[in-house]
Amino acid sequence: MSHYIHHYWQVYFEYVNLMKDLSYKQIPLGLISNFYQYISPEVRERMEDEAFGQELTTACPLPEEIQPFFDQHKQQIKRIAYRPANGKVLLHFEHLRFTEQNYTRFHPNQTVVLARWKKADYFGLPVISKPELAGEVNKEAHAEYIEKANALLKPYAHHPVFGNVFFREKLRKDIVQFIDVIDQIEMLFQMQPIAAVIVGTTEDVYSRVLALQTVKRQLTSICLQHGALMGDEAFLPIFTTCHGVFGKYEKDWYVDKGCQPEQVEITGHPRFDLVKERTPLQQDLIFRKLNFSPAKKTVLVATQPFSEAFYGDVLKTIAKRKDIQLIMKPHPWEIARNRLNEYVSIERAGNHVKLIKKEIDLYDLLPYVDIVITLTSTVGLEAMLFEKSVLIGKMTEGRRYPYYESLGSYHMENPVELAEKAIRILSDEQEMKLAKQQGAQFIKQHYPHARSIDVLLSLLKTKTGVDFQR
Q: Which superkingdom does the taxonomy of this entry point to (predicted)?
């Protein structure tokens, strides 16, 4: 682990222990906090220094101690009797990333969708709108719990994290939201008979409260893996009763972090079922939109934030080749914040280079490109599911992310050499065949389920005894 991650878990453990008695309606507020969001950039930078640990009073946990610590705190949640007749499965829309085909597999009489918007139904499934759950704001509870939190933090004015103004202001704001969301989810369980919950992450407050409410009610809850496993903070700890992952790599990773094998199931993610189920738009239509020729080789580069130097070198190297068509597909974060200047500049290289934001769906592009290049993006996995040749960049600084390391020589550190290798593969059929074979081997090891929705429905039936299929 990096120094930062060592210190992150040290402070996170200390925070959960500090807040352990601050519960609202049996839900510990300290477990709801998405802790890495409480660390300011300045404090985070200091946490990268090995000496930061000397300012802490808690010992650094071993990797295998991480999940058991949180499981122990979940076990302290007081259980209540809740066994409604004809219980439904609740699908939390935010971050679930289900497709229409995924939703239509669930029976409308046995399913409910929780969403932030108001609709009578969503692909035939009844919807509960979050605003409809909001009752009268409990200002007294807000004030009471902020005061309790302030009292707990009072002795920590000089603590390197807890004494930070950013940390304290974030916690105070969050306590208000925690109480409101707990009240709303309590109302939800009173309104609807719920037997199981499925969420797409537990990073947001609603998903985490839903998960902790299923612990309180002794129900089944499943969190699906929302992206390629890159780093601890967005993937640990597990709050649901079960975690659905892409493949063996992730299951082994979680077991190494102290999870029990039965806490982690290899399910894949239903959104990737579209690779086999969806008919893409026709190639001539896509290439007309791009003003590309189907006779030429095409490269897709899926970019990511904070890696401008790497992607810049890859894109410039390939863009020099007028005989190769280049598609730049920025990350949604880059699009939302208009961090596209570098790509706009490269696009001026000629008509053989195109910057695509949201005009064309990724799954309409992947069937017709020859090579895909990215760093840590899930697009690398998706491209291999489409049986495409893939080259993955290796991070040269910061933490090591081993997910794509089994690609061997197709996992490269130098961006110019990676781009040159892509150019060589495009001009050599045998090289292209070998690259595709490496991708197929990766999928065999890392993503065994072609129809994840079937696996998920079967898992739900095993856990609850109920068949929720339409």
A: Bacteria
Q: pLDDT tens across 83-104, in order? A: 888 899 999 999 999 999 999 9
Q: How many folded domains does the chain comprise?
A: 2
Tell me: do 230 and 357 sit in the same domain: no
pLDDT in tens, 185-236: 999 999 999 999 999 999 999 999 999 999 999 999 999 998 888 878 888 9
Q: What pLDDT shows up at residue 398?
A: 65
In a domain, 198, yes or no: yes
Contact 67, 240 (CB under 8 A): no
CATH code for position 221: 3.40.50
Predicted TM-score (pTM) of this structure: 0.91
Are residues 295 and 231 both part of a single domain? no
Distances (CA, A) of 358 to 4, 315, 352, 362, 372: 35, 19, 19, 9, 18
Written as one string, the DSSP assignment of 14-74 is HHHHHTTT-EETTEEHHHH--GGGGS-HHHHHHHTSGGGGGG-SSPPPPGGGHHHHHHHHH
Give residue 340's domain range. 277-446
| pLDDT tens-digit map of 313-361 | 999 999 999 999 999 999 888 888 988 888 888 888 888 999 998 889 9
Whether 212 is covered by a domain: the verdict is: yes
